[in-house]
Amino acid sequence: MTRVIAVASGKGGVGKTTITANLGVALSTYGEETLVLDADVAMANLELILGMEGKSVTLHDVLSGDAEIEEAVYEGPGGVKVVPAGISLEGLRKIKLDRLENALSKLVQNVDILLIDAPAGLEKDALAAIAAAQEMILVTTPEVPSISDALKTKIVANKLGVEITGVVINREMHDKTFLTINEIETILEVPVIAVIPDDPEVSRAAAFGEALVVRNPKSPTSNAIMQLAADLIGENYQPIEPDKKSIIAKLVEGLLGRR
Amino acid sequence: MEMPIISPSIVSYADELNFNQLLEDLLKNKHNGFIRVTSGSYEGYILFKNGNQVAASYDKYSKLEAVESIKSIIKENDTLIEVFNLKESPVDYLINVNKPYLIESGNDVYDVLNELKKSDHDEIENPNSHAETKSSRKKLESESEITEESNTETTQYIPKPLNNEPKPTQKQTIQQTEASNEDKPKFTLENESKIELSNSEVKLKQSNPSNTEKILVDDSTYSNESPSEKEIQIQKDAVEDIEKKSTIEDESIDRSTLLKKYGIKEINETDVENILYSYKGGSIDDNDVEKIELTLMNKIKKSILGIPKIMSAEVLVFLDNTHELSGNTNIIIEHESKGFFSRMIGESRDTENLRRQIINIAQIEIKKSFRKYPEIINNFEINVEIN
């Protein structure tokens, strides 16, 4: 049976889309037929992170009634299937979210895991994305506003009958000014299933339009996401240690242009 | 109570040690340090400064209650008593960090302790008979060796079983003792001012028997030697451990306290219902179209009938939801006829004004019905027929 997992956050800008994109690629590398659907029709970013912008048919077209969902499925890095939302705001008003449910029912027929990148907030579009899922991963940063919004999202999701799989803490900086993992667990009453460190590699990968787990699998963030993916499907993951080259070796490589 | 992780100078089961004699001798010797009393999973502490009990805790109790609780458990077989020595400055620091447990001056705790001493007066041992530990327990024997090595200033006691107490059957694990091997790092507390970490930085916490890296305070190391870098590093590591433990303690704060601490408001049931209502109501289902039409008809009709001289009004609303919500509104009104002269002067102008007024009213009602989507009015065609 296909697992439909919404990745939601409450607050925007916590790295939800980045985690969804990379988690989708990670699940795909484990051999799971994974489809990532960007339900953030107003602020679509998934296609930028995966370098898949400019696709002719998107979720916009499907929700507007101008295309079938099968036409909007594309193959992304690592074999992951992607339904981009479509970046253009043109025709946003034509969208009918009722059609999302119908589109999802068609998508689940051919995949093991369907990841939905839900929009931030608790507007109609966000709720439609959450309500369409069976499970939800709550993404938050260890900051108070983010936790506060995540709490609201969790409560509403519970009301919609969606099971909360766990919380992913993104951009963890081990700073005492932020909430601790246990504090977050206590407030949200949901277990923390992954802690993603703050990593400049994420921004670099996004700038290149590549999934971080593909571009830099040795980075701490990649390891954390691969571990999360493994935990979701009950697999084992052995973290990839970064190369421990000496400064001189790196300097020589740099001079020789091998980097 | 917050206590440092150090090695005890005396370790004994309660049935092998005269607790009252111990208290007397600690007072006599102006002891600085603390004693830990462990019974099962509960721990009690009494902090001493110059031989006086200055703070106490046991399980959830503090101050006098804690002392009374400790009194009640010292006769139990498996109660373990450990004596820890400190210099005066760490004691001052511990007094500072354990303010909630301070036994205030004038408190009747001393009376209780005196009573305690009197009650077991016969069992008082000679404080000077402190050569070796005669404990039958192997673990305690090893501890007694450490006690000998430590060469403490505090008087040591021979743990001797009380006559009226049965032999313990349950062996108390003395990890503190096991931890104090010679290969363990040692550092002095005497030269604390020379160590980078100030007292305020060093958050000494309650000792944890499971902690593998323990700080040993051995009187033999009470010298004027300044600590090496390694020793400082060990202390830093210990502080880090303590901070970790502090974090764990913070985490045990209950949820309501945390929500209050961070100013996070929990969303109430009504708000959730409102959010869900906007979600369910915001998306127009085809089944809802008829209901919307009926609602709009009634609203527009009611408003139009408020215009003077309107005798009757019929409103028909047709919505189209196939692509984007749009509608057609037909309004038929009947109004009072005017006299012939009036009709001659300006009937046409009045009729036009009335038509415009009715259209405005209908538009307002439509906008009011779609508050979050006022642009919908552009998708409505309104026709007015006046009879």
Short overview:
The complex is a heterodimer of chains A (about 260) and B (about 375). With about 260 residues, chain A is α/β, with parallel strands linked by helices. Helix content of chain A is about 40%, strand content about 15%.
Give a topology summary.
The complex is a heterodimer of chains A (259) and B (387).
Chain A: E1 3-8, H1 16-29, E2 34-38, H2 46-49, H3 59-63, E3 74-75, E4 81-83, H4 98-107, E5 113-117, H5 124-131, E6 135-140, H6 144-159, E7 163-172, H7 181-188, E8 192-197, H8 200-207, H9 212-215, H10 220-233, H11 247-255
Chain B: E1 10-13, H1 19-28, E2 33-39, E3 42-49, E4 52-58, E5 61-62, H2 63-73, E6 80-85, H3 88-97, H4 109-119, H5 138-150, H6 175-179, H7 229-251, H8 255-261, H9 269-282, H10 289-304, E7 310-320, E8 326-335, H11 340-369, E9 380-386
Parallel strand pairs in B: 8-9
Antiparallel strand pairs in B: 1-6, 2-3, 2-6, 3-4, 4-5, 7-8
Structure write-up:
- The complex is a heterodimer of chains A (259) and B (387).
- Chain A is of the alpha/beta class and 259 residues long.
- Chain A contains eleven helices and eight strands.
- Chain A has an eight-stranded mixed beta sheet with strand order 3-4-2-5-1-6-7-8, with helices on both faces.
- In chain A, β3 and β4 form a beta hairpin.
- The longest helix of chain A has 16 residues, at 144-159.
- Chain A is globular, with a radius of gyration of 18 Å.
- In chain B, α11 links the parallel β8 and β9.
- In chain B, the strands form two sheets. Chain B has a six-stranded antiparallel beta sheet, sandwiched between helices. In chain B, strands 7-8-9 form a three-stranded mixed beta sheet.
- Chain B is rod-shaped, with a radius of gyration of 42 Å.
- In chain B, 32% of the residues are buried.
- In chain B, α1 crosses α4, α2 (63-73) runs parallel beside α4 (109-119) and α10 packs antiparallel against α11.
- Helices cover 39% and strands 16% of the residues of chain B.
